[in-house]
Amino acid sequence: MIAVIVIVIVLILLLATIRIVPESNEVIVERLGKYNRTLHAGINLMIPFIETARSRVSLKEAVLDFPPQPVITKDNVTMMIDSVVYMKVFDSMLYTYKIMNPRQGVETLSATTLRNLVGALTFDETLTSRDTINAKLQTELDEATDAWGIKITRVEVKNIQPPKDIQEVMTKQMRAEREKRQAITEAEAHKQSVVTTAEGDKAAKVLAAQAEAEAAVARAEGEAKAIELRANAEAAALRTLTEANVSPEVIRLKSFEAIQGVANGNATKIFMPTELLDEVSRSEILGEGIKSGFAEAAPKMARPADLSDKHMDIARSARPDSSIHKKAAAASRLMQYEEESRDTKETGNY
Fold first, then answer.
1. Are residues 163 and 79 in contact, defined by beta-carbon separation less than 8 angstroms?
2. Under a CB-based contact definition with an 8 Å cutoff, are residues 62 and 86 in contact?
3. pLDDT tens per residue across span 243-283
4. H or E stretch at 224
């Protein structure tokens, strides 16, 4: 029985000697009521009844979400600011012995520091300077909490709530600003639409003018080509006539045919050179003489043939194979026949 009691006492002493500390935690050890050392994560040994564990401190980063704090700006606007502080313990001994309630101390210090920072800013600056407020608040809190073994890693201003009348004014201002931006956007859109339409009309007119110019150039080139082709054809025809040794009388006959073709058209006026007009007059006289020879019932007597006319010379020339020579020879024979008939009749009358 005594042995069992001894074994139980030994086990209790062993359990009191061995101290297991979890990860990310530290244990403050006091020896006879005075700080002795800090136990880190793992198995640690303690002297029973002489050393005691004062407290266990977590080394994890903690998030302190404080309720909204009333703050007055430089221009006397009262607002509610809600902030969040991120902290972690870097010295367990200071955290245990230098402050009674670390979380409450950080909250109070954050509120007072925030009031000091915002009190130096106007309402508009407070709304637009969150990053500046966060940085300054973190720096001042970190310096103030070093003595407590606390490291302030980050501070965020979560919400800024102005008074209701200020909120109404801000809402009206925001609505007016948005209406202004809408009007500017609509004006810019209308301007771009008008400019785009004008540019499109301009481009269309330029393209139409270019197309018309190209068409005019094409028509002019076509007319020039046609004139060139006609000139080449006429030159080739003249060259062919020249190479064939055609007499000037044949060329005059071709001119008569051309005049006949012109006269068959719808032209009301025909302009001819004087030389060509003389030829036409002589041709008409020759034609009238030929017609009068075949009209036997005509009472008029035919005029004697003018042997000095150059057509008679053509008829007597040495090219009887051409058509104009044949026509001239036939006319000459007809005139001689009429002259002989007239002489016969006159002789019979006497």
1. yes
2. yes
3. 666 556 655 665 555 555 545 555 455 545 555 555 555 55
4. helix 164-243
